[in-house]
Amino acid sequence: MEPSATTGGSETTRLVNPRDRGGAGGGLRLKSLFTEPSEALPEEPKPVEMSFHHCHRDPQPQPGLTPERLQAQRQLCAACAVCCIFMAGEVVGGYLAHSLAIMTDAAHLLADVGSMMGSLFSLWLSTRPATRTMTFGWHRSETLGALASVVSLWMVTGILLYLAFIRLLHSDYHIEGGAMLLTASIAVCANLLMAFVLHQAGPPHSHGSRGAEYAPLEEGPGETLPLGNTSVRAAFVHVLGDLLQSLGVLAASVLIYFKPQYKAADPISTFLFSICALGSTAPTLRDVLRVLMEGTPRSVGFESVRDSLLSVPGVRATHELHLWSLTLTYHVASAHLAIDSTADPEAVLAEATSRLHSRFGFSSCTLQVEQYQPEMAQCLRCREPPQA
Question: For 67-202+230-293, CATH number?
Answer without folding.
Answer: 1.20.1510
